[in-house]
Amino acid sequence: MEYKRITLFAGHYGSGKTNIAVNYAIEMRKAGRPVRIADLDIVNPYFRTKDSADRLAEAGIELISSAYANSNVDIPALPAQMYALTDDKSFHAVMDIGGDDRGALALGRYAPAILAEGDFEMLFVANMYRPLTRTPAEALEVMREVEDAGGIPFTAIVNNSNIGAETKPEDILASVSYAEELSRLSGLPVKMTAVREDLMDALSGKIENLFPLTLQKKYAWN
After folding, report:
1. To which H or E segment does residue 84 belong?
2. Cα–Cα distance for residue pair 114/57, rounded to 1 Å
3. From edge to edge, which strands make up the β-sheet containing 62-64?
4. Which H or E element spans position 191?
């Protein structure tokens, strides 16, 4: 897999973007890249990327998040270290963007530097089994709202359609046409389809560009 220096994951709440961002950062590290991962969600007081802090540390990945992450203090603050993601080009950066347009507002302060460097991917994480993104048209609307708020255009789609622990291979197969239609409407390619690791064998050869997910311990696949 080819990696841009900065990879951003965004999508509506419940899309599963955090799980994917964590797994993507770990895969990038396994490929030999030095990696930092950051949580830019200042809307949700539960900074879920931090729930994988131990796993990320074991992989040699630096985590940047608010000092208030995983606390009951709801303060929309981001640490100054966030600027290292755009200023220090010796590292690859993975950025977990807050869900919907409000969450993407935090991205605006970093957007000029990201666009100026021009070495980024902005990936829209779509889940057809979640409210507000059940149809490709609904997902496209969310996509455009996030783009307008964050100031960075999406470059590709990640299909992460699932129904949590109840997900079966046929549920993911049923989402292929959804992802293809979203691709057609947006003009963007489907970069990968994320699947739980134990479903990989059943889907191998049936869907292109499968990406296996090891789930965060605290949260279900969603």
Report:
1. helix 84-87
2. 25
3. 62-64, 35-39, 92-96, 6-10, 120-126, 156-159, 190-196, 210-213
4. strand 190-196
CA 176 and chain centroid, separation: 19
pLDDT in tens, 138-172: 999 999 999 999 999 999 999 999 998 899 999 99
pTM of the predicted protein model = 0.89
CATH class of 6-213: alpha beta
Express each pLDDT in 121-131 by its tens digit. 999 999 999 99
Closest CA to 26 of 213, 221, 220, 219: 213
Q: Where are the domains of the chain?
A: 6-213
Neighbouring C-beta atoms of residue 142, cutoff 10 Å: 21
For residues 68 and 77, the answer to whether their CB atoms sit within 8 Å is yes
Confirm if 142 and 133 have CB atoms less than 8 A apart.
yes
Note whether 94 and 37 are within 8 A (CB). yes
Is the distance from CB of 104 to CB of 149 less than 8 angstroms? yes
